[in-house]
Design a protein that fits this description.
heterodimer; A: 114 residues; seven-stranded mixed sheet; four-stranded antiparallel sheet; 11 strands; B: 110 residues; six-stranded mixed sheet; globular
């Protein structure tokens, strides 16, 4: 299995631009999670999906952030408009449904907003 | 109070040393517990699950104390390659939502 695949690996954009991050979970995993990691705040859960349905988006910082999962093999996290404080590493992770399974993370997207 | 608390370190230990990390969690209803490892500029990777009876994987031993809501990780005979940040992870809220501690940084010195 190729694991969780994220793209792009790095993104540098100007303030105000739209940014779209992409994720392909492991085939067969029922859950997909989007996390953000910064030095100051560590790993923060933004949103997660179960069978393509958003379950909890309480971690999404504000309306500028949105996430979709149109099918079991693809999800996007969009920031519009982007701001310098959005600079972070964004991780996607997926998991099976049972309690006791850990998450498998993608390699992350390192976002820099200038 | 944070849901998962860890000593941030850093822990700097010589090769061959034994080092222990501790973690406390606040949600008494938590059911699943893990230790993850994160190398610099990489993604977190599952190191091991933590079971009530305690479990061992080679040089690594994990312990869980539900009464005290405390988890530990012991690394014996530490190697240079063990240098990383170790994240304590606990299920919270829904059974599938995991909360990550802020991590403990370990550097093993030659």
């Amino acid at each position: 299995d190729a694991g969780v695949i994220q793209s792009p690996r790095h993104e540098v954009t100007e303030m105000g631009q739209e940014v779209t991050l992409r994720c392909k979970p492991i085939s067969g995993h029922d859950y997909l999670f989007w996390y953000r990691q910064t030095m100051m705040r560590g790993l923060e859960l933004l949103i997660y999906f179960n069978n393509n349905v958003p379950i909890d988006d309480s971690g999404m910082p504000e309306d500028r952030f949105s996430a979709k999962m149109p099918n079991a093999s693809f999800s996007t996290l969009k920031i519009q408009p982007s701001e310098p404080r959005d600079s972070a590493v964004y991780f996607c992770a997926s998991s099976w449904a049972g309690v006791g399974y850990g998450y498998t993370f993608g390699s992350g997207t390192r976002l820099t907003v200038v | 109070r944070k849901e998962v608390e860890q000593d941030p370190g850093p822990f700097n230990v010589p090769e061959g040393a034994t080092v222990a990390f501790n973690c406390t969690y606040s949600n008494s209803a938590s059911q699943s517990f893990f230790w993850y490892r994160q190398d610099c500029r990489k993604e977190p990777k599952l190191l091991m699950s933590v079971y009530s009876s305690g479990n061992e994987d080679g040089r690594f031993t994990a312990q869980l104390n539900r009464a005290s809501q405390y988890i530990s990780l012991l690394i014996r005979d530490s190697k240079l390659s063990d240098s990383a940040t170790y994240l304590c992870v606990v299920s919270s809220g829904s059974a599938r939502q995991l909360t990550f501690g802020s991590g403990t940084q370990l550097t093993v010195l030659p």
